[in-house]
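Here is one chain, start to finish.
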Amino acid sequence: MARVIGVDSSTQSCKVVVRDADSGALLASGRASHPDGTEVHPDHWWTALRDALAQAGGLDGVAAVSIGGQQHGMVVLDSDGRVIRPALLWNDTRSAAAASALTEEVGAEEIVARTGSLPVASFTATKLRWLRDAEPENAANVAAVCLPHDWLTWRLRGYGPAGESELGPDLGELVTDRSDASGTAYWSPATGDYDRDLLVRALGHDAILPRVLGPAESVPGPGFLVGPGAGDNASAALGLDARPGDVVVSLGTSGTVFAATEVPTADASGIVAGFADATGGFLPLVCTLNAARVLDAVAGLLGVDHAELARLALEASPGAGGAVLVPYFEGERTPNLPDSTASLVGLTLASTTRPNLARAAIEGMLGGLAAGVAAIQGFGIEARRVLLIGGAAANPAVQTIAGQVFDVPVEVPSPGEYVADGAARQAAWVLTGQRPDWPVELVARPASDPHSEILDAYRAAAASY
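Its structure:
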């Protein structure tokens, strides 16, 4: 029985799963926390990875390992392999002006044609431009640029700063994968090549970039194979075994919508990011800032827990009596309205009830994500089913109302660590040469009962922004 390990090095923590390469059975797991903040020194990730691996039984007897991680984070190394400054994470917005500057210099349509996506503050290229302008001495010392999962893969293989690693600072051994490279804004999903001109425009000079591995390509580790890894959303898609026709809606603190497809996308409006996936295909993605925390806010307002919020919401009729919540509580990324605030409209004396407010919260949260599904479908991408994941997907009212908001069938997979599971699938893939067909358990199939009036009212309210 060959054992493989999948890692999810996320913003909040590092999760490790150990699975049987043949059946996918879970054998062990581990978890360790990361520091809070929008910039973190990568050494914290390395410590957390080693702690989580130790909890899961260590690396002895493991045949292959793969690491999934948070996208976009900027890790900059000097010629000795040392981290120059703490990594700026995807959720660090100080590079918003840099994103606008890069887009203005190159042109929105041109940069999207070259990279598949319109740069925003989360992307690596914009953070490099910020570094060039705000910390020119640090920028001048950059010899290599990589992403969080790239750096952890490098360290796991034994590389790192001189005196702190067995194999030393060989920057040429940095590797990455298509999915994470596609979130940098200097790599093209369509051509599979780095765009050195965009890198130089951002950083001010050229630098070593990780070699992009194929989906089942591996590199040697100390006694085991190491897979290419993946960005978090692409790894989750692989963990769910998403295929063309599947659209994943993830309800975390923020919300994401992404689809498995064989065709690249390029959206100059910036609504749909044209990422690559971890299988050789593509992963068009829409991200919203406001998802599960919408439910937190309204539950707090009503003085109830999430179970009671669900009970109240299911008392109300579809459409919440005309009450519509546009839930831009802390601005919004899609649409790009960073300074916006939430609004609650359509209230009358009759509609202002606790059940309608509870239902409006769930309809509003799902309304923004349904707009994301529609944006992806607008590129001709088929949606045969929605896979609803994330913590809020377990809420029974969310499940029921999702069946009324989305116009395609909704299925809810069993709660799990799908980013780490996707990395484990990839590790098994590089070990066996075959993409695993491990089963994904479903816990709910809400009745498909679309009510067009819900989205019509949501679109009308959101159009006022």
